[in-house]
Design brief:
The protein has about 525 residues and is an alpha+beta fold. Helices cover about 50% and strands about 5% of the residues. It binds protoporphyrin IX containing FE.
Length: about 525
């Protein structure tokens, strides 16, 4: 008997279910019914409004196969050229809106921040042990507690009081570059890590293989692998992959995730416990955690408060280390291939500060070209090219389009002439002053995101970067060990975060700075 006859003849549902051939028809039929019911509901929700234009998708898979996984932002730029500033697509059943322009990002994420400040729920977050980190929290009461805690040391007034500590850290970097220039990239990594750890816990890193710092760097390296966009999409489509037992051969993603989780918890708990111990025994060095622990009247119960402090503090390294380090790495590599930019910055310093002087924050206004270099680095090398995904908490309408509740991804469009050319002078007026327009100053850069979830560490990042950039330009001539490198640009390892690919550089002390460097 044919399978169709089976279905027609066997009105007995039990027998029908037992026939394997009938399942071949039933499974797709159930799926289609579910899909069309969902579509009908979605159509009703839209009330006849169109969705933003976007690429056609395949049933179930949507547009996932059209995305370039190593550089998804390139796909989004192509879609911008074809469909415009706001694009709709479906990714394995998840509706996603891509905001492809700074103008639309400001209109939606800033002006309508009440509903555009959520994060999409990703099974990956709990799987990797980062679900309670500030950056991953849904927009709600817990996030507001974290945000208030972080503001304590990240707000501009608090950041201003730590100028001397930024200068001290930049001098530490200069001293390491002078003593051991060959490992310049490693010094950069260590000093950036040291400054975030000091700010968060008041802990001073003692050696290269420091018991707190080393596992934190290891964690970031693992997170980059485990959070790659391809794995994230596959896991959201097939969550059972996260449950496969570790003993099954070939389940390398499970081993990566287990190690990432263990490090996430260890890095969150151990330095926090160190501060608690310090408080019991002595006066702890000033830090985010010690300030929060001493705070009265926080508005939440004790256990909840300790948990929130621990997680907000844990988020600082994850969010602040790699972003700052890779921006500085891009700066040094760019300087090595652009000697003309170094020469202009150094002559500005020589004239306005004098030779043999290391700049301080009081000198910042006298050095507009140094700021212009930093703005150009932030413009050209956006280390999180898709920022972090946002989500809307309710449906919305924009320019006649229906924006469904759900995932939003950001991609800033290059609004500059010749965006691929490294040219700091684009940030200067004809009289050599910095252009002052919203979004051109460093902490206002779109590289820090938009709206209520905009990077709260941007003022600290700006000062760390300025101190390091200004000090290095004053003290060293930087050039590539292989002169042939000058012909190429900076290359990147692509992923959620873009990481510049380092190359050997030479750091030659400038005239008048050798003794200054030796004394640091
Ligand atoms: C050059 C350096 C940095 C860059 C480019 C950067 C960029 C970003 C971006 C794009 C976001 C997501 C914004 C959004 O969702 O719209 C973010 C979030 C965040 N950043 Fe940064 N960041 C940097 C440095 C720092 C530093 C130094 C810290 C802290 C010490 C920090 C702490 C955070 C936190 C806690 C979040 C999560 C905010 C939330 O979800 O509410 N960042 N950052």
């Amino acid at each position: 008997m044919s399978t169709a006859a089976h279905i027609l003849n066997y009105l007995n549902p039990i027998e029908l279910c037992l026939s394997p051939k009938a399942w071949v028809f039933l499974v797709p039929a159930l799926f289609l019914a579910y899909h069309s019911a969902r579509e009908r509901l979605f159509l009703r929700r839209r009330g006849g409004l169109p969705l933003p234009p976007g690429p056609p998708g395949l049933l179930m898979l949507g547009s996932i196969l059209s995305i370039n996984f190593s550089q998804p932002y390139l796909t989004f730029s192509e879609w911008k050229a074809r469909y415009g500033d706001i694009v709709y697509c479906s990714l394995v059943g998840t509706p996603a809106v891509i905001i492809n322009s700074e103008r639309v990002a400001r209109e939606l994420i800033e002006k309508r921040s009440q509903i555009y400040s959520d994060r999409p729920r990703m099974s990956n977050d709990a799987y990797l042990g980062v679900a309670s980190y500030t950056s991953q929290l849904p927009y709600g009461a817990e996030w507001k507690v974290h945000s208030r805690m972080l503001q304590k040391i990240l707000k501009p007034e608090a950041v201003k009081t730590r100028h001397s500590s930024h200068i001290y850290q930049s001098h530490q970097l200069l001293a390491s570059l002078y003593k051991d220039p060959k490992s310049w990239d490693e010094h950069l990594r260590q000093t950036t890590a040291a400054s975030v750890i000091k700010l968060t816990y008041g802990y001073e890193i003692k050696a290269e293989a420091d018991p707190f710092c080393q596992p934190m760097i290891e964690f970031i390296d693992l997170l980059r692998i485990s959070m790659n966009p391809f794995r994230a999409v596959i896991f959201s489509a097939f969550p059972l992959l996260q449950k496969v037992p570790l003993w099954v051969p070939g389940t390398y993603w499970q081993r990566d995730a287990q190690q990432t989780r263990q490090l996430a918890y260890r890095n969150r708990d151990q330095p926090f416990d160190w501060v608690l111990n310090q408080i019991v025994r002595t006066t702890p060095p000033s830090s985010l955690v010690s300030e929060l622990l001493h705070e009265e009247d926080s508005g939440i119960d004790d256990e909840g408060r300790l948990y929130a402090i621990k997680n907000a503090a844990g988020s600082m390294f994850t969010a602040g280390f790699e972003t700052t380090y890779t921006t500085l790495l891009a700066f040094f590599l760019t300087m090595a291939i652009h000697p003309e930019v170094q020469i202009r910055a150094q002559s500005e310093m020589d004239v306005r500060l004098g030779k043999g002087v290391l700049p301080s924050f009081e000198d910042r206004d006298k050095l507009p070209y140094v700021d212009a270099i930093l703005r150009e680095i932030m413009r050209m090398y956006v280390m999180l090219p898709l920022a972090l995904p946002h989500a809307t908490t309710s449906d919305d309408i924009y320019e006649g389009y229906f924006i469904p509740k759900g995932k939003l991804m950001l991609r800033e469009d290059p609004r500059w002439t010749n965006p691929e050319v490294f040219d700091p002078s684009r940030h200067l007026t004809t009289s050599g002053n910095l252009v002052s327009k919203v979004g051109t100053e460093i902490s206002g850069s779109p590289a820090f995101g938009f709206g209520r979830r905009k990077c709260p560490g941007r003022f600290v990042a700006e000062n760390t970067l300025w101190a390091a950039v200004a000090s290095a330009l004053a003290a060293f001539k930087i050039f590539p060990a292989d002169e042939g490198r000058k012909r190429g640009g900076v290359e990147f390892r692509e992923g959620v975060a873009r990481v510049p690919i380092s190359f050997p550089c030479v750091f030659e002390p400038r005239e008048g700075y050798r003794s200054v460097l030796a004394d640091l």
